[in-house]
Amino acid sequence: MVSYKELGLVNTREMFKKAVAGGYAIPAFNFNNMEQLQAIIQASAETKSPVILQVSKGARNYANQTLLRYMAEGAVEYAKELGWEHPQIVLHLDHGDSFELCKSCVDMGFSSVMIDASSLPYEENIALTKKVVDYAHQYDVTVEAELGVLAGVEDEVSAEESHYTRPEEVIDFATRTGCDSLAISIGTSHGAYKFKPEQCTRDPKTGRLVPPPLAFNVLHEIEKKLPGFPIVLHGSSSVPQEYVDIINAHGGKLPDAVGIPEEQLREAAKSAVCKINIDSDSRLAMTAAIRKVFDEKPGEFDPRKYLGPARDEMKKLYMHKIVNVLGSDGKAE
Ligand code: G3H
Ligand code: 13P
Ligand code: ZN
């Protein structure tokens, strides 16, 4: 058993309280490898932004749980080395799907876990979430839960259809589970294809898809029911079209990839939404940079020569999100 406190990490409690009061959101960036982690820490340290390092079940299987935990510990030291005196870094399990997985992460130094029982019937979601909360809170680890279903793939759970979170359920759910934050469904979804072309209109000038707006009315209803309660948005990549274009121009094939417009995320960040999850955009930045090198320099085979540019591109992306979308820069001086 190792406590996250020994690793220099923090939980989300204070971070979220300040973010809700301050009208900004904390970035939750997924990572699976060293270059992503370096880019996240460089961007957070440079902007003095609190940050949530997210590890999915898939990432844990891919990278090895022990290695990931030491990488997070190393991230704290690296942040200090970069001149960030008091780094505020959370290590968070993304989409935990069982009590055992959440417990194992708590026991291995995570400071926050998500139990995603949103695909279960309501009462079962409550029971499982409460079980995780009861365990995690003994160690001062914060817990994110989810109510409502996002369309698309949630790790190994795939949902054909989304249904928005029902505002009439949130008080009962938050009270009975004791969760610290709540992920809601208001029209975001995972991946680089958040909407089908038939759900969108098309910009006649550019030919690009224009997605339908998020259900801000549902968000506002939820905020009224739970004033000041930390709300989380998953599936919040904006799928930058410049990356899609670079990928497609260098041998890739991502037709009609579409995300959540950044103005809408900026709007959400001003509300009780205090954690915004971004994974796909980093994947796109990385893939665009690597494809470009592979295409333009077919003789290149030193991984640093393509992973280096990929890391730089991800850092640029993370800084942009922090400063221009979430507004969390300077909030962890
Ligand atoms: O919500 C899902 C995250 O983007 C993680 O994706 O399960 O492929 O690691 P993954
Ligand atoms: P994106 O696929 O939109 O990046 O969402 C990531 C996410 O919600 C991770 O939990
Ligand atoms: Zn998610």
Radius of gyration: 19 Å
| Proportion of residues in β-strands | 15-25%
Total of DSSP H or I helical runs spanning 4+ residues = 12
Report low-confidence residues grouped into runs of 5 or more. Answer: 153-158
Element-by-element helix/strand order: HEHEHHEHEHEEEHEEEHEHHEHH
Reported for the largest beta sheet, the result is:
8 strands, parallel, barrel
Looking at the chains present, what oligomeric state does this protein adopt? single chain
Question: Please, what is the average pLDDT?
Answer: 96
Helix content: 40-55%
* Spatial strand arrangement across the major sheet: 1-2-3-4-5-8-11-12
Q: What characteristic shape results from the CA principal axes?
A: globular
- Write down how many β-strands occur, each being a DSSP E stretch of 2 or more residues: 12
Ligand set: glyceraldehyde-3-phosphate, 1,3-dihydroxyacetonephosphate, zinc ion
What separation lies between the terminal Cα atoms?
Answer: 30 Å
The chain-level structural class is alpha/beta
